[in-house]
Amino acid sequence: MRRLIVNADDYGLTPGINRAVAELHAANALSSATLMATAPDGPFAEAVSQAAQMSSLGVGCHVVLVDGIPALPVREIPSLVSGTEFRPKLGAFVADLLCGRISETDIEKEAVAQIRKLQLAGISVTHVDTHKHTHMFPRVLRPLVRAALACGVKAIRNPFEPDWALQATSRAGRVRKMQVRLLRSQSASFAREIRKSGLMTTDGAIGVLATGSLDEPTAEHLLSALPEGTWELVCHPGYNDADLQRQRTRLRESRDIERRALLKAVPGAQIKVIHFGQL
To answer: Scanning 74, 147, 233, 279, which has its CA 20 to 30 A from the CA of 5?
Structure first.
């Protein structure tokens, strides 16, 4: 059987992203979304209210450790912050992580705080993933797993993209292809940690390479190439409106393109669409 989780990241960031999640779910083009616990208050509250009315939508926690603000006071997680915010760039985060300048204890505390914020808001958290896929690295994965288990969350994103999906993503640039392939060096340690933890996950993620370039032909090509197993299509749909323009994100015009691509490609595909809570 071919099973697919279609998950929208950055839920709660803007009203336009919330609107896209609701519209896509109603059209059977989206089954899951990961909510940002530290998103702006208005869009966050709107997403929580919206999710309560969509019982068939799986909602996870999009744990943010870079390029955002923490849920905890900065004095409680000093190794994670620069001033009052997380490090703005992924490269700086990874460099400090690998050099041992970021505490796993701080990561675990912050992840627990973000997950529990969603749970206290009434969200039954189906799974966790991370902004910019930082849990590819063992020094983030280990404390994230501990946080998930402490909060009763039973599933986690497998962020590694298989060869068949990379080959089906023809429009991605060479540099990004090289980065995604290089990061797969962490996949064996991910698999060992997840087996040991007892958390559930998928056979892999698709759409990671296509972030920013997931148009209709790419989506259709990925879905037609989907083999047996359980996979997650990682996507970032939305509306490129004034609220999005005020956010610090490179994904603007591409969110409109992804939204339209999912509407066209997913509903007619002969694939069983599920969410993480149905693993």
So the answer is: 147
* Domain residue ranges in the chain: 2-278
Q: What is 2-278's CATH number, 3.20.20.370, 3.40.50.1100, 2.60.120.260, 3.40.1130.10?
A: 3.20.20.370
Decide if pLDDT at 173 tops 80: no
Q: Is the dihedral of CA 28, 34, 39, 42 positive or negative?
A: positive
Burial of 173 (0-12, 13-18, 19+ CB in 10 A): exposed
* Cα torsion 265, 216, 52, 272: sign: positive
pLDDT at position 271, please? 96
Query: Radius of gyration (Cα) for the chain, nearest Å?
Result: 17
pLDDT digits (tens, 9 = 90+) for 174-225: 777 787 887 888 999 999 999 999 999 999 999 999 988 899 999 999 999 9
pLDDT at residue 274 in the model:
98
Find the angle CA(35)-CA(37)-CA(43) to the nearest 5 degrees: 70
Distance CA 245, CA 251 (A): 10
Q: Are strands 81-82 and 85-86 parallel, antiparallel or unpaired?
A: antiparallel
pTM of the model: 0.95
| Averaged pLDDT, 18-29 | 98
CB 210 within 8 A of CB 222: yes
Coil, strand or helix: which one is 257?
helix
CB 14 within 8 A of CB 241: yes
Residues 6+ apart with CB under 8 A from 73: none
